[in-house]
């Protein structure tokens, strides 16, 4: 089942909580089941869907929830919230796109801004999915994950990417921008509206070289690149992957 709920950013720092925990224990006001998808609509001043989550646990008591008091702006509201049951919403992706604004959502199947939880119908679901997928188009290269990984390591990498990579990716873009770090291409400048917000993000340290406890540093470990340069960064010269500086120098010699 797919759901849409609303989030009041004047009461609670959702971004901060997701960044620290990777999830939020949310008051359960619908019959969620584990595995359900929950999209989160941020109210004024944003007025757009900004988070995609998955239900990880249900029927959690207030004694079992994570202590997130520091992310509440109003302590009285926090104390009033400590009752009933909760559902743990694990962050999958975070976006900030005008294509997910209230106006666009109404053009694609939403009747009105969500107040309580609503079930997402087919037309709206297709629109939401297409925009989340487009925003986070990263490109997957087989060299990123070695064939000799043990199953446990592969599972750890998958979970880490599933939980955290979209947040780190967005922070990388906020830090470095949307121009390719090698050739300086900007997709919006070249292709117009259809290219707005599009870029690949390259892991400077290959994924197969990091351990399960490794946390990505978005300033140091991630860099925005166009698909062509991204592909070249996964080629090897003399048995070693090409670096950003090497490829940039090669590009300038053209």
Topology:
Blueprint: E1 2-7, H1 14-21, E2 23-27, E3 37-42, E4 48-61, H2 75-81, E5 85-94, H3 102-107, E6 118-119, H4 122-135, H5 151-176, H6 187-191, E7 200-203, E8 222-225, H7 227-233, E9 236-237, E10 240-241, H8 244-252
Parallel strand pairs: 1-3
Antiparallel strand pairs: 1-6, 2-5, 3-4, 4-5, 7-8, 9-10
Would you mind describing this structure in some detail?
The chain is α+β, with helices and mostly antiparallel strands. The chain folds into two domains: 2-135, ph1033 like fold; 142-252, no CATH class. Helix content is 32%, strand content 22%. It has eight helices and ten strands. It has a six-stranded mixed beta sheet. A hairpin with a 5-residue loop joins β3 and β4 (48-61). The longest helix is centred in the middle third of the chain and has 26 residues, at 151-176. It starts with a strand and ends with a helix.
Number of strands: 10
Q: Kindly provide the name of the CATH class of the largest domain.
A: Alpha Beta
What string, H for helix and E for strand, traces the elements in order?
EHEEEHEHEHHHEEHEEH
**Radius of gyration computed on alpha carbons:** 20 Å
Globally, the shape reads elongated
Mean pLDDT: 82
What is the count of DSSP helices, taking H or I runs of 4+ residues? 8
Going by CATH, the architecture of the largest domain would be: Roll
What characterizes the major β-sheet? 6 strands, mixed
At CATH level 3, the topology of the largest domain is ph1033 like fold
Tally of discrete structural domains: 2
Taking the alpha carbons of the first and last residues, their distance comes to 52 Å
Assembly of the depicted chains = single chain
Instruction: Let me know the CATH homologous superfamily of the largest domain.
Output: ph1033 like domains
């Amino acid at each position: 089942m797919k759901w849409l709920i609303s989030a009041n950013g004047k009461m609670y720092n959702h971004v901060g909580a997701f960044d620290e925990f990777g999830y939020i224990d949310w008051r359960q006001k619908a019959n969620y089941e584990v595995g359900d998808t929950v999209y989160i609509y941020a109210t004024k001043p944003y007025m757009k869907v900004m988070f995609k989550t998955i239900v990880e646990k249900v029927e959690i008591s207030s004694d079992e929830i994570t202590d997130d008091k520091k992310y509440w702006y109003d302590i009285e509201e926090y104390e009033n919230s400590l009752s009933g049951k909760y559902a743990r919403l694990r962050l999958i992706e975070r976006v900030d796109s005008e294509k997910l604004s209230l106006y666009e959502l109404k053009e694609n199947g939403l009747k009105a801004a969500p107040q309580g939880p609503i079930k997402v119908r087919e037309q709206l679901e297709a629109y939401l999915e297409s925009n989340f997928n487009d925003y986070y188009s990263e490109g997957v290269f087989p060299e990123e994950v070695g064939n000799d990984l043990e199953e446990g390591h592969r599972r750890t990498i998958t979970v880490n990417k599933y939980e955290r990579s979209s947040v780190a990716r967005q922070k990388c873009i906020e830090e470095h921008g949307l121009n390719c770090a090698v050739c300086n291409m900007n997709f919006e400048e070249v292709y117009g509206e259809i290219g707005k917000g599009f870029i690949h993000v390259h892991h400077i340290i290959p994924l197969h070289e990091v351990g399960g406890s490794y946390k990505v540093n978005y300033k140091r470990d991630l860099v925005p690149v166009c698909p062509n340069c991204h592909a070249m960064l996964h080629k090897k010269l003399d048995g070693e992957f090409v670096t950003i500086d090497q490829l940039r120098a090669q590009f300038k010699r053209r």
